[in-house]
Amino acid sequence: MNADVAAENPSALSLWNDPTVPVDARVDALIAAMTLEEKTAQLFGVWVGAAADGGEVAPHQHDMEEAVDLDALLPTGLGQLTRPFGTVPVDPALGALSLARTQARIAASNRFRIPALAHDECLAGFAAWGATAYPVPLSWGAAFDPDLVRRMAAAIGRDMRSVGVHQGLAPVLDVVRDARWGRVEETIGEDPYLVGTIGTAYVQGLESAGIVATLKHFAGYSASRAGRNLAPASMGPRERADVLLPPFEMAILEGGARSVMNAYTDTDGVPSAADENLLTGLLRDTWGFDGTVVADYFAVAFLKTLHGVAADWAGAAGTALHAGIDVELPNVKTYGAPLTEAVADGRVPEELVDRALRRVLTQKAALGLLDPDWDPLPAALDGTAPDDPEALRGRVDLDSPENRALARTLAEEAVVLLANDGTLPLGRPRRIALIGPNADEPTAVLGCYSFPQHIGVRHPGTPHGIGLPTLRETLTAEFPDADITYVRGTGVDDGDLSGLDEAVRAAREADVTVVALGDRAGLFGRGTSGEGCDAETLDLPGAQQRLLDALLDAGTPVVTVMLAGRPYALGRAVAESAAIVQSFFPGEEGTHAIAGVLSGRVNPSGRLPVGVPRTPGSQPGTYLGAPLAHANDASSVDPTPAFPFGHGLSYTRFAWTDLTAHAQEAPTDGEFTLAFTVRNTGDRGGTEVVQLYLHDPVASVVQPVQRLIGYTRVTLDAGEARRLTVTVPADLASFTGRDGRRVVEPGALELRLAASSADPRLTAEVVLTGAARHVDHTRRLHATFVRKPATT
């Protein structure tokens, strides 16, 4: 049906509005009816902020973009609304009303009554005022618990969907290559298998709630030179294929992610936003991805302003569109008038516009945005009176008790006990000296993409919207009989030493000293961790090492607690602290989790998703290094970490015994089956994290000394044992060969069952036989663990 005819006869159902018609036919009919301007209007977003009074959203004025005139844009339609909740503080119910009113206006303004797709950030929870702040992704990695992360993501997705949001810009699947990079806190860890499995679980949870998950940053962002944000990425195709791409591959093939966001960086001179081989050849033609590719904010314009591969805005638009970027975010810059003019004069084929448009409209159809019964009012406002905004205030709870329970469980599982001489758990100390810049700071548990740190800091005086108990408050509750003396000592990064003497006096008068150190999350230099907050070295920021050393000299046992976004070298504390507790921005329930570990109420089970360096200048480096990347006689620099990837202690002990292998040999298309027993030999229940590493001693290209290929959490009561069986497909031994194809080669392997990358407990020596075998994205990606009660 012609669009003008439909407009004159609203009761007539247009083909594209008919949900009984196949989606492809609906989309084709809609594209055929659109003008060029209406087509390109679906390919960009507008950055807005919900109105605090429930009125329509207001365009966000960003210093990198010109002001946007919504009145001028809306008659041709609008593709996306950028961060309606994540731009200004607004009551969630009034924000939902503001978004609904704007969506009604958008639909009423264009010929086809198409609303916008609304997206928001959800890196560590929905980035909206009053929404639960969960632990950051680095803590997800520390938990080694995909099932729990899946449940958390589903809860985040339900909250987002309830207020009218359709797409979430998460998870970050970048693999840590240099811990100096400011965005380490946003990553899941330094191992691609850990990142892939945890990230895929997050995608599955978010998508289960109807939210479009967006994988980022595709690909290579974390491999930037010297850990500097947006710096060029120095890596060859094999490192990209074997380290950086597998998490994206897994999240697409197994997670069902419906969107991908490009990386800012260039690799060997080719920006990701202009890389057709990456965004179309690999992503779509090889992996079969059929969702949308959205630009990281301003990335299309950066092709002109930062990368210099486009001469003007039209050139940037054509380059990105040709490579495979479907949607320009956060605002219209190049995909509006410059793109329309370039298509009209033949510089950009209209077929490229139609290709991107088909993907966008297909996604909108799947979300119900083209259906005749689409209603702008979201589920959270069902049964309310939207004509009385003030009556809605406080009616939507984005920080429910169920959310907080999930947040606390994840925070507890993610706390890593790095060292302990027996001082922990503390029992019932009479006098505790609580010292440090993060001991009494509410936001010390939050990452840079939490609402309070990302947006709230620009609105001083606005309440956080969620409860953020400090470590001082939770320790006081955890140890009600103790006399707790608090001294700040120094700031996170101010270098102030005026409180040093008072801190030392407090320590000397106490039975135990708890010193809380680490980071302050922020953006672009406003913090010590976060986007644009890169570090020159992994020294503790400011004067924190001076404070720590002075406390170690005071003679009282020191428990070092880290609340940070990256690992830091701790100097003397590695050997001299009575205990070290590492927590990576554990979210709003995080200090409860830390206090529980200190008291013994929580038996720690977290494991390091990134190694803790011994020296501050040992970057870049990860456990995945080849032999020459590890300590050797050819260099005076020893990069061996103080605490390795996968490390973590417990308050109980575990024995690993009785390894058997079904067979020592298997063909290159076969599998190995191992069985072993894990027993809790301590006097309390606990959880062991069994890690499976592969060591390939001889290969046609240099391999890492070992790499993680599987893991499982095993929870056992005191004295309890489990017999574990693990099936290991030969496909897990594959790597990118000299010809650029993934290959499984015959030869000897070691399968190491380990408590960390530096603590193998049981090793099976096996052999792959037969001819080398090439595999692709259809290969098996996982080892399979099965648990049974032990027979003895």
Automatic annotation (TrEMBL):
Residues 688-757 form the Fibronectin type III-like domain. Keywords: Hydrolase. InterPro entries: Cellulose_deg_GH3, Fn3-like, GH, Glyco_hydro_3_C, Glyco_hydro_3_C_sf, Glyco_hydro_3_N, Glyco_hydro_3_N_sf, Ig-like_fold. Gene3D superfamilies: Glycoside hydrolase family 3 C-terminal domain, Glycoside hydrolase, family 3, N-terminal domain, Immunoglobulins. It comes from the Bacteria. It holds the Pfam family Glyco_hydro_3_C. PANTHER family: BETA-GLUCOSIDASE. Belongs to the glycosyl hydrolase 3 family. This is Beta-glucosidase.
